[in-house]
Amino acid sequence: MKHTGSKVPFAIAGLLAAASFLLASAAEPPKSGKPSAPAAPKAKAPADARETPGLPAPDYLPEAARTLLRKKMDRHGLDAKELMFGVTLLRYDVAQGAAQRIASEPRLVRPAPGSEDDLNVALPERFFVLQDEARLRAQAVAAAAGKHDDRALAESYGLLVQTCVSCHSVYLKRQ
Ligand code: HEC
User: Is the dihedral of CA 71, 76, 78, 79 positive or negative?
Assistant: First the structure.
């Protein structure tokens, strides 16, 4: 049977669509074609946030050296995100795992005296100091998460983030 001119099925479809919209705001927009009420802002799925903007390029580092360094810092961004959510949402095991991975990241070694063609020569001394500091502070976060100590977790995470920013700063400004 053809619904020529009948508006009823359309209205029902519209109602159903509206109902399903109300029930599941995260669902796909209704297919009735009618532009419905403005959709609730879609929560940013973690997958969308996969890419971080990354650090700006430091002006002193040859591109090849930077590429190498970026590769070494590969897991960095991923762990950082997990750590942030793990700590702030009190997912102790997530926080602990991420903090432990950060603490055990392979470290860049200080250049041996006299070595010149080394990427590490280009990096400022404080880079290495902060690298060690980050490791200790990440261990503190892991320990706090392991103890389910929320206060220590907040404090140790705050301290760790200070070190993250400091290192990115000395890296960019070569200080
Ligand atoms: C020892 C120095 C150092 C410390 C400490 C450090 N970072 Fe980094 N970080 C770097 C360097 C170097 C890069 C890569 C720089 C580039 O892209 O040129 C980087 C890159 C990043 C990126 C971008 C990754 C990408 O995909 O481009 C994120 C995110 C990041 N760091 C987060 C953190 C967080 C969070 C912490 C603290 C838990 C931290 N970093 C601690 C040196 C450090």
Answer: positive
State the greatest distance between any 2 C-alpha atoms of the chain, in Å, as a whole number.
89
| Mean pLDDT (the chain, rounded) | 78
pLDDT at 78: 84
Q: Virtual CA dihedral for 114, 163, 69, 171, nearest 10 degrees? A: -70
Query: Which residues 6+ apart lie within 8 Å of 128 measured at CB?
Result: 108, 110
Taking a C-beta distance cutoff of 8 angstroms, is the pair 145, 95 a contact? yes
Distances in Å between the Cα of 126 and the Cα atoms of 34, 67, 120, 168 are 60, 21, 12, 11
Distance 5 CA to ligand 1 centre (A): 63
- What's the 46 CA to ligand 1 centre distance in angstroms? 19
Is the CB of residue 157 below 6 angstroms from any atom belonging to ligand 1? Answer: no
